[in-house]
Amino acid sequence: MFKQNLRNYLRPKSLRQILMYVFIGIMGLGVFLTRYDAPLYQQHIVGVVESAKQQRQQKTTDQFNNVDYSINQILEIKILNGSRRGEEVKVQNNYFKSGALNQAYRPGQQLFLNHEAGNDISIIGQKRDTLVALMAWITVTLLLVLMQLPGLLTLVSVLINIGLLYIAIKLNLNVTNINVVLLFSGVGVLMAFVTLSLALGWNKKMAITLSATLLSSIIALIIANVVMTLTHQRGLEFELMDYITQLPQPIFLAEAFLAALGAIMDASTDIVATQFEVQEAHPEISRRKLFAAGLGVGRSIMGALTSVLFLIFISETFAMSLLYLRNGNTWGYTIEINMVLGMVQTIIAGIGIVLAVPIASGLAAWFAHNKEVAQ
Fold first, then answer.
1. CA distances, 234 to each of 154, 237, 317, 341, 345 (Å)
2. pLDDT class for 372, splitting at 50, 70, 90?
3. Domain limit, last residue, from 147, 164, 189
């Protein structure tokens, strides 16, 4: 029964579905061809590992009793592009078993190589475009097959948002003294507008959701800025942000706004959509009851959304925090170096989610309510 239902679901029923399957097939062929795209690379040498032989293994122990093994490999690599195409070379690869700084290589893997003095060749890293293309193809296939038109709109939204973010980054790099907070906040507003327009359409529901999202995000950012000003930003080590080449505080606020925007938009969408459904099912409902319905939805999801944000933050910092702890650093120092800024951004997003519950509920109750029905 399940197989029959699956076949019926996947069977193309229109020209649009046929074109969708053709597009998925072309993308799959493109994934396969990335395995043979080495001649397209001009700046780096690409080689494939023909064989890998382990020469020696040495145990190392540091002052904190962390044990690791240093291993030496001899790789036979066939060059796939450039003037030395077809040539086979031997390259040494020294790596640690923990894989913290480098990795072992296996036959069949493709690598990026670099010329050193004379004819010596060193390894830059593994060529992973096939893996990235495969993951992208799986994602696109699932979206199109399972969600069809909404999935296509989701892909379009993601591509447009990537383009907007790229434009913002280019402006930040090329325009002197540009206000980073206003720039990326403006881009965030455009991204939210594009996402909600494609997901909900141009209607009252979209306008209410967008208004609630932006209002909650802006208020949360204002609260955070006021608190940081009153506390003189004590405990926030902005200079520890990675790869910062300009004032870190505006970058931090811009990051916080963009991070909060998505979660707040999710909460607002759920609340407003539910209130519209309740309004359609019960046209005679009062504004007060419609507002209470929105609050009920918001209270049930805000804990889960905040937890999701916290888990995402933990996953980003877990590996580096564990490395700090294993090397004799205290919990306080580890948290200060790796976690404080991310925790503050999570708190800002959490404030925005909490604010979104009454704001989205109130706006939807007021504007979605059927005014022709007596209170």
1. 41, 8, 21, 12, 15
2. very low
3. 147
